[in-house]
Write a structure and sequence with these properties.
By secondary structure, the chain is of the alpha/beta class. Helix content is 34%, strand content 20%.
C-alpha cells in the first residue's frame, strides 16, 4: 500500500487555500493534516472550527486533525461536527488521556495521541490499546519549517516494539521536518504515515513530491 502521506495545510498558501486543497485532492495523499493551535499549549495560533468545516466541504481526503490545545476533551464533539475523521490529542495536554481517547472513539472518529519530543514512548504503555494513531513529533510543536530531531527515528523503533508487544493495531505517524531523506529513515524504523508541510507546499511539483513520499518503503 505504501506510506500514508498527510500534507499539512499549515504550510499552504492561505490566500489560495481552495487551490491548495484541489492539489491535495488530485494527489496520491490519503489524509490531509490540520494543526489546531490555541496559543496556550503551543506559542502560536492557527485556525479553528469554521475553517475546518470549510476544508471538510472541499476536501476528499481523510481529515487528520491534530489538537495542540489545552483541555482537548472540551472540543471533541465540536470537531466531530466540523468533519474530523481522525482526532489526535497530546498526551501532555490531557489529564485523563484514557477517557479522552474513549470519548473520541465514541463520537465515531479514530483516536490519536501525540507525543512531544521530550515525552518518552513508555508514557503510552497503559493506553496503547485505545489508540488508533500515535503521532510522534519530530520537531517541537507550534511552528512549521523546523529542523528534524534525529532522535525521533529511535523513538519510532521503540514505539513499534511497544505496539507489537501489546498486540495493538495503532498506526505510527510522524510530524516535523519530514522530507524524502528523513522520511525514508522513519519508514524503515516503522512509521506508517508521514506529515509533510513545507516539503510539499514549497515544492515546485507538490503532487510528485507527495508521490515520492508515498513510495517510501521499509
Amino acid at each position: 500500500m505504501g506510506t500514508i502521506v498527510s500534507p499539512s495545510l499549515l504550510a499552504a498558501d492561505f490566500m489560495n487555500l481552495g487551490k491548495e486543497i484541489e492539489m491535495v485532492n488530485r494527489s496520491e495523499a490519503e489524509w490531509v493534516h490540520l494543526d489546531i493551535m490555541d496559543g496556550v499549549f503551543v506559542p502560536n495560533i492557527s485556525y479553528g472550527l469554521p475553517v475546518v468545516e470549510q476544508i471538510k466541504k472541499a476536501s476528499r481526503k481523510v481529515l487528520d486533525v491534530h489538537l495542540m490545545i489545552v483541555q482537548p476533551e472540551r472540543y471533541v464533539e465540536a470537531f466531530r461536527k466540523a468533519g474530523a475523521d481522525i482526532l489526535t490529542v497530546h498526551a501532555e495536554a490531557s489529564a485523563h488521556l484514557h477517557r479522552t481517547l474513549q470519548q473520541i472513539k465514541a463520537c465515531g472518529m479514530k483516536a490519536g495521541v501525540a507525543l512531544n519530543p521530550h515525552t518518552p514512548v513508555g508514557t503510552l504503555e497503559d493506553i496503547i490499546g485505545e489508540a488508533d494513531v500515535v503521532l510522534v513529533m519530530s520537531v517541537n510543536p507550534g511552528f512549521g519549517g523546523q529542523s528534524f530531531i534525529a532522535h525521533a527515528v529511535e523513538k519510532v523503533r521503540k514505539l513499534k516494539r511497544l505496539i507489537e508487544e501489546a498486540g495493538s493495531e495503532a498506526l505510527i505517524e510522524v510530524d516535523g521536518g519530514v522530507n524524502t531523506e528523513t522520511g525514508r529513515l522513519l519508514v524503515e524504523a516503522g512509521a506508517d504515515a508521514l506529515v509533510a508541510g513545507s516539503f510539499v507546499f514549497r515544492s515546485e511539483h507538490p503532487e510528485e513530491t507527495i508521490r515520492e513520499l508515498k513510495e517510501l518503503k521499509a
